[in-house]
Amino acid sequence: AQMEATADGLLMGLYSAQNDIASKTRDVDAARITLQRTRDKQSVGSVTIFDVETSALDLEKAEKALVWAQRSLENSTRSYNRVVAKPLDRQVTAKLVGYGTMPALPVDDYVERAIQARMELYNLRENIALQTRLLEIYTFKNLNMSDEDTKSNYARTAVNLEKMKADLVVQTRAIVAEIRGAYLEMQKSKLDLTYTEKTLERQRLSLKNLRVQIDVGRLPAWQADALTSAIIGLENGLNLSKLSIDNSYTGLNHAIGNGPGIR
After folding, report:
1. Which of 132, 154, 211, 243 has its CA 20 to 30 A from that of 196?
2. How far is residue 50 CA from its own chain's centroid?
């Protein structure tokens, strides 16, 4: 399960790196077009050479950002190939679809399942029952009071039993905090997803209205370029957010466990 979670995380990182390259490539294209427009304006005297130099610097920054994105993709690819035992230089294209899967039950239900299923709690409960039975055996005919060896074993077992009970309390609290924390993070991710969806909806409406202005000749066609690129970026970000929630849900189920504590 841990290896699967690691591979899933690396695959999502690979997908994110691919999207980042696409975004940075759009930025370079936009900066190159802007520089050409600025040069055209400067040739007719409507802007200064300073404006041209600023646009040229923007293009240089965009190109450097693209190079770093490409290196990040190379690193992500090698990391993924290493985990799945493939040649490090193997090219990988990740095509992932996110669904934004959220827990269907209240958090208390997941906490209860984890308490019953987690192996460490199961083992502690089993050992506590064993040590309790052992104490009962030591008290047979009050041997724990009269026989020195039995008295010593009884005392040692009693101490171990109390320690196990304390460990059970501590580990149960830790697991409860872990499950509640994971559940809360998913709720926060869902709120972020909802915000992104509303933002995308507003951007699409703005683009629709902008294209109306372009169609009737009030604005040049290139005015829609930046907004179109921003919408593509938001769409990719939306899918990435859904994938993140899906991975978190898988992680929540892994955290709950599926051990012999389930009867």
Report:
1. 211
2. 43
